[in-house]
Write a structure and sequence with these properties.
The chain is mainly alpha-helical and 137 residues long. It has one domain. The chain is 85% helix and 0% strand. It contains 5 helices and no strands. The termini are close together.
Length: 137
């Protein structure tokens, strides 16, 4: 896979990830997090940290999931490996919080682990399908 196609696949994956995650955070789960986290939840997003997370998470999906799937594993491989990657990445944050923060809600951890797996799998699957169809070579 050429450097150009790798960069284009990264940008495609980033766009898909951002769109899917914003629907989750902005519409589906917004009230859930507000109810569960209450005063722990910041009234404003620290965008540099959020953007860095997105860039690193997508880099991980690209390196470990999407590019290998585009090289021959296919979309179904991307689905399960992306789900596993998302589960592991989201577990790092949520299980650490559950282990170290007083009052961290178990429901948030359980929902986030499920969401990380669903998000990683869905984004990897869609990115692999679209990149395979849209990118030359």
């Amino acid at each position: 896979m050429s450097l150009k196609n790798t960069i284009l696949a990264y940008l495609l994956t980033l766009a898909i990830f951002f769109a899917v995650d914003m629907v989750w955070l902005g519409l589906v789960a917004k009230g859930f997090y507000r109810r569960q986290l209450g005063e722990l939840l910041s009234p404003t997003v620290v965008w540099p940290a959020a953007i860095l997370f997105y860039m690193l998470f997508i880099a991980g999906l690209q390196f470990f999931v999407v590019v290998p799937a585009l090289r021959g594993g296919g979309a179904m491989q991307a689905l399960w490996q992306g789900a596993l990657f998302g589960l592991i990445a989201y577990s790092t944050y949520d299980l650490t919080n559950l282990a170290t923060l007083k009052g961290w809600p178990l429901p948030v951890t359980l929902v986030d682990l499920a969401w990380g797996a669903a998000l990683g799998g869905t984004v990897s699957f869609l990115s692999t399908l679209l990149a395979h169809r849209l990118l030359p070579g």
